Amino acid sequence: MGLSRRGFLKVTGASVAGLALGRLGIDMAPVSAYAAGLKIEGCKEFISICPFCSCCCNVLVHSKDGKIINIEGDPDYPISGGGLCAKGASLKSLHTSPERLTKPLYRAPGSDKWEEKDWNWMLDRIATRIKETRDRDFKQKNEAGQVVNRVESMFHLGSSQVSNEEAAVLHQMIRALGIVHFDHQARICHSATVPALAESFGRGAMTNHYTDIQNADAILIMGSNCAEHHPMTFKWVIKAKEKGAVVMHVDPKFSRTSARSTFHVPIRSGTDIAFLGGMVKYILENKKYFEQYMMEYTNAAFIVGEKFAFNDGLFSGFDAKGKKYDKSAWAFEKDEAGLPKRDTTLKHPRCVYNLLKKHYDRYDTKTVSSVTGVSEKDILRVYEAYAATGRPDKAGTVIYALGWTQHSVGVQNIRLSAMVQLLLGNIGIAGGGINALRGEPNVQGTTDHALLYGYLPGYHNTPTANLQTLEEYLKAETPVTKDPKSVNWWSNRPKYVVSLLKAWYGDNATKDNGFCYSLVPKLDPGMDCSHLYIFDRMYKGTIKGGLIFGHNPAQSVPNTHKVRKALNSLDWLVMGDVFHNETTDNWRAPGFDPKNVKTEVFLLPSAYRAEKDGTVSNSGRWHMWHYKAADPLGLSRDMGTMFVDIMNRVKALYAKNGGTFPDPILKQDYPEKFDADAVAKKCNGWFTQDVKIGDKEFKKGQQVPGFAQLAADGSTVSLCWVYAGGYPDAGNLAKRRDLTQTPMQAKIAMFPGFAWAWPMNRRVLYNRASVDPSGKPYNPEKVVIAWEDGKWVGDVPDGGAPPMAMEKGTYPFIMTTEGRSQLYGPGRADGPFPEHYEPAETPLSVNPFSKQMNNPCMKVIESDMDKLAKNADPRFPIVLTSYSLTEHWCSGSETRNGPALLEAEPQQYIEMSHELAKEKGIANGDVVEVESLRGKVQAVAMVTVRIRPFQVAGKTLHLVGMPFAFGWTKPKCGDSINRLTVSIGDPNTTIPEYKACLVNLRKAETVTEL
Predict the structure, then answer these.
(1) How far apart are CA 51 and CA 441, in angstroms?
(2) What SS3 state is found at 72?
């Protein structure tokens, strides 16, 4: 019997008497390591959460005399079991680093140095700059004369490092100021996830959870290197493999993930749809689909209207001039009752099933092989292994990350994986689902709270100018169905939107004034205010000032030459961060003379994770509380306090001096002081008056038990409806650490008592699809839920109604309008079926699948600094892809300050095959100059067998890879890969195409700072 250090201390009280335990058969070998534990003697222990990756590993933080002494993994955290990756293991050194920002710093226009300023001076000056810009540039009406109440000359770019509570007060501040250029890190990492999964199933979140991966019989890892980038995820992959699961890694390069998989399949970057389209063809032709699931739970039998067509790469309804589709051409046929027509015989030529077969008939293995560079043998190896899960007693799961999202077809990459899962019956079941491995630890939470211009908290679209009243907005945004068995949960949107407005504007929001809807800034229809457009407008001079918190766009946004030039054209810039980085110090970056940079810069020192309270939400939607273990280092402050202090100073200026349209600022219900617990309560929501719901009475001020009790009459408030139920009267459920499970739950590692998962602690979304129409589990060995004795048992059911075959039963996909998941998805910008298009820069001269070379709807940013290589451009014959590292995170602006991490990965490099190196006369370790049409960067050559040449369209094609964690500030090791990448966006989300552009390379003649 072994004993952990924590267990030893609990049992023995750290007394010498505990040594007698050795005589009882307890292995005392670990005691030799406990001497090291003496360093924490007299310390207080706090639970915090690692600030790297969405596994959100819990850590134990030991502090003494107000200082952090030790940080280690939490053995009680179900996902990691106390393990930490290299970054997590470096948390103590990062928290106590001498490189930390500890004082407010000011850089005057034209200055070549930072000046230390006190907080009051900085905050007053920031508030003045915000008010000056807002008053000068506020736009009450657009060119069409519609009221919009917005300001376009200011922006905010945010971080997933903020807690949910910080995100809530931040969003409220930005909307009150009228800022519409409002975006954050999710835009450039995982924004493709939400519209893809929501189109398919109704919600845009990871369907299952990390510990569930072990229940899979087949695992397709594609667009992810999770062993290195989300290491604790891979722990559960290995558990599944040990139980007999087939693990397939389809990725351009061989990595640690490949090494531990059953097999690795190299693929040309940007050709995932071709590969998955071939899998759809294989499943349909060989009838590998789960027939009952497909017929009952998807829209396979729905009949599409006569206007639908697909011809040579384009769907019907395409406007070539506007580069967009009229999606009404893709509508379903309706019957007299207004319901979509169905053909359960699947004989109608326009039923979804037949249109699907016809669409992917072109995706034969020979053509797929020619496009992807994957051999036909390897293609069939994957198809056969994964399609074998299309049975009731088998489960297959998909794991992806930025390798799928960061493309001009990013949304459709994910959409097609969802379609594969639906054909095989892999959604809602244990060991199934789609694992969207989000990046930063709170990308999920900050997406829930909508730190993105196009949403309000809780996944409501930002109001547009053509929806002038709340009534118009709710009518347009609330779906309607005529099918009595469809729950159509989004029909409750009015309750959630009104509760949000009441939370923002308090008693000022009344039914008579539309709950202050008029105060919310409006976008013009089609207006894009995401990263690429923010920097384009900044570069062109229409954006004058802004705020950046915990984000490093000067390193992490494509075409950084333009981004850096744009940032230095601003009048003023406010930043909050933990360390200096490429953005904070852009005014003195290589190539710029500080004397010529007019930007007034305010740099605010931010608290780090273990120095503040709050919640984060991991990719599996687990909502967890982290505790403040020590005061922030030096004079640094948590970002929630920064946001509240800035907003209240702006509010005071308007109250004292007046200004342009002050109502959104003066009428909002905003905290005077930031308190994470108080904001968490408001995220859940409470009753504003005494009410009776059914036979239960609730008092004014009482917490709502869940979102089912939210109302559209102003009697409830909630800052984010999906979090309702997480902080009821019983207390903050995010703090729970109960590992107890029923035998049914323990069999699939559900852990329902640990923390809280939205929605309503449901661990597997769409779980009613894991049972047949009568409620009997498809796989009795891995039961998620079951209908027993007139009730659901197991997980929290996704909709409490009886199974669909019963009299009062409902369909299991409660978030879609018609109650079924969507193989055919008519809501995406670039088509109801994913189609292979080449990346914006491609080494091919012909697309073998159609005459349409690139995504016809992709966003193309145009300026004198945005250039695209032509198809098969002989000057740039090599495909470049990007990836991250185990030792660094995102832009590296934090981890490059960790000595051990920097020693392990010290410099920018470029990975290439031996064949390409020989062709270019490059040796391992040589400094290489990499060039695209947009710029050049130097990197050290890593010549390796991990990347091999591809045979594509009858010729040899080379691919190279570079990590995106390095910039110019530290160490002096080359610069960002994004000096090379393209300003091209997916048409649904404008996520940039980082993963495939064209370059050339040569041995550097002169070496600069390497």
Answers:
(1) 6
(2) strand
Maximal C-alpha separation, the chain: 85
Mean pLDDT is lowest, of 133-137, 188-192, 730-734, for: 188-192
Half-sphere exposure of 542 (CA within 13 A, CB side): 11
Coil vs helix vs strand at 655: helix
Mean pLDDT throughout 336-351? 97
Label residue 1 exposed, middle or buried (CB < 10 Å: 0-12, 13-18, 19+). Answer: exposed
Could you tell me the two tokens for 46? Answer: 């706090």
* Nearest to 593, CA basis, from 626, 621, 568: 568
Contact 257, 234 (CB under 8 A): yes
The span from the CA of 71 to the CA of 609, in Å, is 12
User: pLDDT category, 890, cuts 50, 70, 90?
Assistant: confident
Give the pair of three-digit tokens for residue 358.
């016809």
Q: What's the distance, Cα to Cα, between the start and end of the chain in Å? A: 52
pLDDT range class, residue 8, cuts 50, 70, 90: very low
Supply the pLDDT for residue 6.
53
Q: Taking Cα atoms as reference points, which of 205, 239, 207 lies closest to residue 432? A: 207
- The DSSP call for residue 215 is G
d(CA 558, CA 930): 15
What's the rounded mean pLDDT across residues 939-955? Answer: 96
Q: What type of residue sits at position 735?
A: K
Contacts for 219 with CB less than 8 Å, ≥ 6 apart = 213, 237, 240, 241, 245, 246, 247, 248, 396, 397, 398, 399
Per-residue burial over 396-415, b if 16 or more Cβ lie within 10 Å, else e, is: bbbbbbbbbbbbbbbbbbbb
Cα angle 853, 403, 242; round to 5:
135
CA separation for the pair 433, 220 (Å, rounded) = 11
Q: How confident is the model at residue 11 (pLDDT cuts 50, 70, 90)?
A: very low
What distances in angstroms separate CA 181 from CA 19, 184, 532, 538, 590, one per listed residue? 63, 10, 11, 11, 28
Counting Cβ atoms within 10 Å, is residue 860 exposed (0-12), middle (13-18) or buried (19+)? middle
- Determine the Cα–Cα distance for residues 686 and 670; give it in Å rounded to an integer: 16
Retrieve residue 790's tokens.
């007139």
Contacts of 71 (CB under 8 A, 6+ apart): 48, 59, 60, 61, 62, 91, 92, 95, 610
Q: What single string gives the DSSP state of each residue in 801-831?
A: SPPTTSTT---S-TTSTTSSB-SS-TTSTT-
The sign of the CA dihedral 555, 561, 563, 565 is positive
pTM: 0.95
Residue 750 to residue 753: CA distance in whole angstroms: 9
Nearest to 192 by CA among 475, 356, 436, 390: 436
Give the DSSP per-residue string, 274-316: HHHHHHHHHHHHTT-S-HHHHHHHBSTTBBBPTT--EETTEET
Residue 37 has a pLDDT of 57
Tokens 């007999």 identify what position?
244
The pLDDT-based confidence of 10 (bands split at 50, 70, 90) is very low
pLDDT digit string, tens, across residues 166-225: 999 999 999 999 999 999 999 999 999 999 999 999 999 999 999 999 999 999 999 999
Contact partners, residue 486, CB within 8 Å, separation at least 6? 810, 811, 816, 817, 818, 819
**Is residue 261 within 8 Å of 246, Cβ to Cβ?**
no
Buried b (16+ CB within 10 A) or exposed e, 144-156: eeeebbbbbbbbb
The amino acid that residue 712 corresponds to is A
How many CB atoms neighbour CB 128 within 10 A?
14
Q: How far apart are CA 535 and CA 128, in angstroms?
A: 24
| H or E element in which residue 546 lies | strand 545-549
